[in-house]
């Protein structure tokens, strides 16, 4: 790599889901004061940046992703003074803060939408996407990402409005220059506060295709696939360039665009190193590899990903973006199940070792790694939650539409799928210790706790020098210390090996060899490790050379 390294290319991000991190006032919901209290924990881990999920005023139809006032704080989380204090304390400790930016849609309680829906000639009417019925039906066949149609009929004015997510999340009309100006002004309010960047929610969807044509309907499904129909619309790059000039260039910011429907070709445009748009994107291809073979069921499935497919996909991103753009590296977040449950094994005998393996695989790749709260202690999916316990609107809609209405799958099967893939797996509160409600709250938690908190918690992990936490701490330290992790060339080994994911990172004078046994079996592989190689990190105490024990991960370092 010839270009100079930017601070965010060496950084590791820790994602905080505020609602589930730490409650301080006993209302059962995490808050900003709670995050401030836990900054030393994040500092101890070594992360450079916190990404905060939305903390803005919201009726919480989609847990804060439906914003009713972009310049106010959700009272459940505290006040603007609490936010200012958190930002100042984080900066004092050398931690940067990335805010979530949700501007594909607002809440239907946002004053812009309240005005827009009030009459056809209101000056905010064109802030949103309104259309007349076609033959008494929706204007096109698009489905909402969370099941059901993407259009809602509004009696008052006799038109439909578009909502790619839930009804309470009407889509903004980015084609309207006043909308863009209003969004950029709002972003500048936060830039002026001194925040360090934005994670941009579904930013690949902001430009809608001309004429809003029907999407292709997957076999067995009710609605057109909005992702394919809408993502990467004709003006998205133009809008982001404008945002870059009017907002992002005002400070040395970090930006990551959540980009469903993005492939390597358009990722290179979004995250081009010419600094004209964003720094990196969250791509979703690897998240879709374990989807249901029935497209009508989308992500709802419980089979593990094929390692060969995973390797092919991640390697494609590593190779294609090198020198051109920049990767984000993630296994999980507030929308995905827990990494150890999905890619490793959460059976007690393998949980710790496989959580470390999964971490090793990701943290030696090129890109900026994201750690989702609890991942660093090996938190698992929440199998104790039943249908009535779920809070997430995506899960509720899946039961409502796919089970109850369309009978695509029975309830027991859907419950298995939700235990494998549902978003609430990641949203159960953070497990700090073994006291009541894991030290998260003295009240009633907003979402049921994962009942394994008596053993899996921060207190236990900090007391054990071999814990997942200290392994992550070391991974972060190594990334800070060894430039090859940021800049080395990626080379996949043995693409067809169904059991081991091995790759190299190569620079002019040194090399890393990263070996990950993805199975619970003891197997043998010979990678012809040079005699001068030393083990940089591994999840077993000794090096058994060509024998790989269950979920073994190790990284050799050698000078050429
Ligand atoms: C992606 C966010 O990560 C998710 O939580 C949210 O539901 C949708 N975008 C809609 O804003």
From TrEMBL:
Transmembrane segments: none annotated. InterPro entries: GH, GH13_cat_dom, Glyco_hydro_b, O16G_dom_2. Keywords: Glycosidase, Hydrolase. The keyword DNA-binding does not apply. Its EC number is 3.2.1.10. Coiled coil: none annotated. It comes from the Bacteria. Pfam families: Alpha-amylase (PF00128). NCBIfam families: PRK10933.1. This is Oligo-1,6-glucosidase. The gene is malL.
């Amino acid at each position: 790599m010839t270009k100079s390294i930017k601070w965010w290319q060496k950084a590791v991000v820790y994602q905080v889901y505020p609602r589930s991190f730490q409650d301080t006032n006993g209302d059962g919901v995490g808050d900003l004061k709670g995050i401030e209290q836990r900054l030393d924990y994040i500092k101890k881990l070594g992360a450079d940046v916190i990404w905060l999920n939305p903390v803005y005023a919201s009726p919480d139809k989609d847990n804060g992703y439906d914003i009713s006032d972009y310049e106010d704080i959700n009272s459940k989380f505290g006040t603007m003074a609490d936010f200012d204090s958190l930002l100042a304390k984080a900066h004092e400790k050398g931690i940067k803060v990335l805010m979530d930016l949700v501007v594909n849609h607002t809440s239907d309680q946002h004053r812009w939408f309240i005005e827009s829906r009030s009459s056809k000639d209101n000056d905010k009417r064109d802030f949103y996407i309104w259309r007349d019925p076609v033959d008494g039906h929706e204007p096109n066949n698009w489905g909402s990402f969370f099941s059901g149609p993407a259009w809602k009929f509004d009696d008052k004015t006799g038109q439909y409005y578009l909502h790619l997510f839930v009804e309470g999340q009407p889509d903004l009309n980015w084609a309207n220059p006043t909308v863009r100006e209003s969004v950029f002004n709002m972003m500048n309010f936060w830039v002026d506060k001194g925040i360090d960047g934005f994670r941009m929610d579904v930013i690949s969807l902001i430009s809608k295709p001309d004429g809003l044509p029907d999407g292709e309907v997957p076999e067995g499904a009710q609605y057109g696939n909005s992702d394919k129909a809408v993502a990467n619309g004709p003006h998205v790059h133009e809008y982001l360039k404008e945002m870059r000039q009017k907002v992002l260039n005002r400070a040395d910011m970090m930006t990551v665009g959540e980009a469903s429907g993005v492939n390597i070709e358009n990722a290179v445009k979004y995250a081009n190193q010419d600094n004209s748009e964003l720094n990196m994107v969250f791509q979703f291809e690897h998240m879709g590899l374990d989807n249901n073979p029935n497209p009508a069921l989308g992500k709802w499935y419980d089979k593990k990903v094929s390692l060969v497919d995973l390797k092919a996909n991640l390697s494609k991103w590593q190779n294609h973006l090198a020198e051109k753009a920049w990767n984000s590296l993630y296994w999980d977040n507030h929308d995905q199940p827990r990494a150890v449950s999905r890619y490793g094994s959460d059976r007690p005998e393998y949980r710790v070792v496989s959580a470390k393996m999964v971490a090793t695989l990701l943290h030696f790749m090129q890109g900026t790694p994201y750690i989702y709260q609890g991942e660093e202690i090996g938190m698992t999916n929440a199998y104790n939650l039943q249908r009535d316990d779920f809070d997430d609107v995506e899960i509720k809609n899946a039961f409502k539409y796919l089970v109850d209405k369309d009978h695509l799958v029975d309830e027991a099967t859907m419950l298995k799928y939700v235990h494998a893939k549902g978003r609430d797996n990641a949203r159960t509160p953070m497990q700090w210790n073994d006291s009541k409600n894991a030290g998260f709250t003295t009240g009633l938690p907003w979402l049921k706790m994962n009942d394994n908190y008596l053993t899996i918690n921060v207190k236990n992990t900090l007391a054990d020098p071999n814990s997942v936490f200290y392994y992550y701490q070391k991974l972060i330290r190594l990334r800070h210390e060894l430039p090859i992790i940021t800049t080395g060339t990626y080379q996949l080994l043995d693409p067809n090996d169904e059991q081991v994911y091995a790759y190299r990172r190569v620079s002019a004078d040194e090399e890393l060899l990263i070996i990950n046994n993805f199975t619970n079996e003891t197997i043998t592989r010979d990678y012809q490790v040079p005699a001068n190689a030393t083990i940089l990190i591994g999840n077993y105490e000794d090096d058994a050379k060509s024998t790989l024990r269950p979920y073994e991960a190790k990284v050799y370092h050698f000078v050429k």
